[in-house]
From TrEMBL:
Keywords, alphabetical: DNA damage, DNA repair, Metal-binding, Nucleus, Transferase, Zinc, Zinc-finger
Biased composition (Polar residues): 636-646
Biased amino acid composition, Basic and acidic residues: 571-589
Localization: Nucleus
Sequence ranges assigned to domain UBZ3-type in this UniProt record: 586-620
One Pfam family hit: IMS
Name of the protein in its database record: DNA polymerase eta
Species, as recorded: Aureobasidium namibiae CBS 147.97
Segments for region (Disordered): 497-520, 526-545, 556-593, 624-670
GO biological-process terms attached to the record: DNA repair; error-free translesion synthesis; error-prone translesion synthesis; mitotic sister chromatid cohesion; response to radiation
GO molecular function per UniProt: damaged DNA binding; DNA-directed DNA polymerase activity; zinc ion binding
Amino acid sequence: MSSPNLLESSPVSLSSQRRRKSAFTYRQLAQLATSTTSCPLRVIAHIDLDAFYAQCEMVRLDIPPDKPLAVQQWQGLIAINYPARAFGLNRHVTITEAIKQCPDLIMQHVATWKEGDEKWAYHEDSFKNMATHKVSLDPYRLESRRILATIKEHLPAAPISKVEKASIDEVFLDLSTHVHGIMLERFPELKGPPPYDDPTEQLPRPPTTALEWQTDALVDLDSTETEDDDPDWDDVAMVIASEIVRSVRAKIFEALKYTCSAGVARNKMLAKLGSAHKKPNQQTIIRNRAVHHFLSDFKFTKIRNLGGKLGDEIVAAFSTDTVKDLLEVPVEQLKKKIGDDTGTWLYNIIRGEDHSEVNPRTQIKSMLSAKSFRPSINTLDTAVRWIRIFVADIFSRLVEEGVLENKRRPKTLNLYHRQGAQTRSKSASIPMGRAMDETLLFDIAKGLLAQVVSEGRAWPCANLSLSVSGFEEGVTGNKGIGGFLLRGDEAKAISAAVREPSEVRNPETPPPSKRRRVEESGIQRFFGARQESSGGNSEREEQQDFHMKDEIREAHSPFDVPPSAQLASDDTPKAHAEMQSGHSDDDPSRYTCSRCNSTLLVTEQGEHDDWHFAKDLAADLAAEERTNTAAREQSRPASISLSTQPKGKGRGRPPNVVKAEKGQKKLQFG
Ligand code: CTP
Ligand code: CA
Ligand code: CA
């Protein structure tokens, strides 16, 4: 994978004669091997797919790479390929304008779930059916998985290389250990023990050579450095990382026909800025000697976590929005004005210091399906129809997770309901004694909705979301469970059968206690809603309820990162997590969510906030779930152990958001 002629000889320069020792020590080399986050030789890459959804459609439909294409969602465009961008198209352009600007534009609508269908599909007329369809990003999620698998196949297994899926179309790679191994092979002089066995001894310098950067975009060096300066080991490490990344990108293209861009640097923050630096299909290297120059050209508001209110406050406090100016401010003054933690964090981040870990998160912890209603919905039937789609959406993802084969299984189902400023959530255990199927989830979900409705003030409803959480690994060797958990094809066949909306085919009926609850609540017709929902006289009336916009990002990533918010899971000071959203300074139609640093349309803000809100609620519930497991076990087989959490403040961050594990701020959503 790596080119053998990494180093080409060049005349020995004066400076190398002056500095015969490396700036790095044996200890630091050893830290590279263990990929210590503070190691100055560390090599991190960030890979981001070019115009991802658009490429998915190009690949799927086998469209030549030079044809302009945009991905349509209802009346908007959500992804635009690079040939179409050459016509000046972007995500703000309406469909009519787009066609005017680029008459040959291919517009492909995203796949949708049609009410009553078993699976999402590419419907030709979906754009006319916002009322009865829900967007499915499953096709992109599947491609995302294939790409991730290709990347992993091409790299040594963990812990030699670490891969963190950061969003639907991007990954971070920690290549430190891998690069260390290659360095030792290529430069055997690094293998020896340090002189006097002292790890603080400096390494010998690398051979005096010119590094072969091939086609990489190299960021200009700091003013104190020149290209004539001899490389040190950090440059060598970076070249090797860059070879690896180039070969990974080539592999992705060869195997799957996708192009991507990459950034290589000493940490995640810089690597991420690097991948966006030159697009499409390019890779940018930010050598350590170029970091200050690279960053000083940025407005600090472009750095993650500095796009929102905190960024605005800093702009106000120091009367500047440039990194360059802020670099002049002593740390003490930063601390005085914005607090000790944040001040220290800011001081380091603008100097390119970021010690967050590449976190290989493989297991999905929860899955969310949601819809915001604009205008709000007003009837139970409408709500039940959406619940049915959420269940189908989540269930299909559970099947992919291996739930039918009992590999993993969620313990809890959560429903969120928003009415005015109040969000209520209900959760129920998914009984372990039952085979997991859509009917089971649908019945429980309807039960939860019944609870909300029976409490009153359910309408108008502005948002409904359903999630599963509390995944447990498969139970083996347990007779009782093995009795109903089916394997592979058999299970799939049965699951196809139970998708039929017939009680007769359904092997199980809702547990008696649940029935009772629902009957008591006086909305018994709930359990018949499934059949009713496929037609009937109320259909026309309900159409009026359905003028809502799908949440683009409801199912965005198998992980907990909204679009273009890839760094949300980094370990940043608590203060940042609590920041509010702010508007982007250079485009009044856009704002940057300070919780995840996504740049979004202002019109998308409501939905985006909902998205965070729902996730925070899910996090609450997951934590509650952990602490209440024992109690809930006792309440079986009632299976609906309800937890009601009125969130009086509505939008925004709920007061008791659960603290995530170290290095991983949030729960993952499927
Ligand atoms: N996306 C979205 N809604 C957003 C932001 C992004 O649906 N608010 C989708 C886009 O359709 C995109 C994918 O998420 O294809 C990845 O987003 P991003 O990497 O930001 O943009 P790309 O379209 O991949 O373009 P680029 O080449 O600039 O990365
Ligand atoms: Ca992208
Ligand atoms: Ca991206």
